[in-house]
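Supplementary notes (optional reading)

For those who missed the lab, this is the record we used. Protein: Condensation protein. Length: 419 residues.
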Amino acid sequence: MDHYRGRDSALNEQVLWRLRGPYDHEAMTRAVAALTARHEPLRTTYPRGRRLRQQIHEPRPVPVPVTDVSAEADPAAAAREIVATEVAGGVDASVWPLRPRVVRLDPEHHLVVLTLHHYCSDDYSNALLARDLRALYAAETGETADLPAPQWQYAQWARWQADQLSGPNLERLTDYWTGKLTGARLVEVPARRRRPVPDGEPPWISVEHYVDAETTAALRQLARRHRTTLFPVTLAVFYALLYAETGADDLTVASLFANRGQPQVRDTVGFFASMVLLRERFTPETTLSELIAQARTTVMDAMRHQDLPHQLLPPDTVAGGTGRTDDVLFQLLGSLMTRADMAGEELDDMEVQLERRRFALEFVVVPQGDQLSALLLCSRAEFDPLWADTFVRDYVTLVRRAVADADVPLARLRGAPVT
């Protein structure tokens, strides 16, 4: 990804924290330094060369510049532009993997921005960093902070992973995934075709619609009836929508798993997230309830076998010709780890990061209080904005139909009445 898509800033991660009330910049600088001392990946560089290797540095002070936008006509808009510029600007991991900044909107409203190279962080790690920075800043300003010490640093896990990906265990993992994926094909969405991007238009389409609170509560009840979580249920609805779009009854989509089966890495920062391919086969008469049960089994099996990076599979395991298997991705945001900042302005702050170009079509379901947000990110050069809007609306409609009657066959689900 770094080689082929680094120019699109796909490898930047961001942690954002809105700080209200009195602000102590010296305390924040010390807290950032303590954060880098606590987590080795924040002070690990990757020298350029034929082989990627980690070079871990001793703890040292990290400059934390302040940008004051309090005199701007619209400080919030100015701050948002800074956040967008930060996430769009590449982080040179051969020099330093972390770029902190503080934006002052007014004397008692600051936005703390940590921009990181993806080599050293993922969504779960971002949540850890948000938690730890809050606690470390509190400690620097005289409050009590009780943080669990990381049992392993990332380099220890990397050595453990290398040991796991050898011998009988590698054979076991490879046998599972080849058995699951051999004969699978990439999803071919009929609406996808190359098209020129009009001048002045952004290269990326972002469409968001909401599942209301009553429907979301019913969806959670449906998950409980199936003894599962929202992830397999929302994934099953996504399969149903793809079936309606493509007519294909054998669908494989990518997703990201936390890949933290070892308890020693519960509080470890690093890039653990594993791309997994979730394949489901069904018939037109399969009901959504049956598809949820299948998806539950598929997800649980994938979790038990997520240690194998899918790049280690034989290149022809999934048919498609390009070798790319992540063009269509489904994600339940927050499924990696509950974030402390998933509300209000902090949730709005995430929008800039979500709009980065990463995959041709990325469908994200985001829990927001008692509602769900359904968000589609796709390439404007490959998809039409009107189609994208309809696709997300149809997903929300299918969710409503699913909770009304999950026993309707997939062939009739799209046209089933909503009660």
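If you only remember one thing from this example: The CA atoms of residues 233 and 292 lie 6 Å apart.
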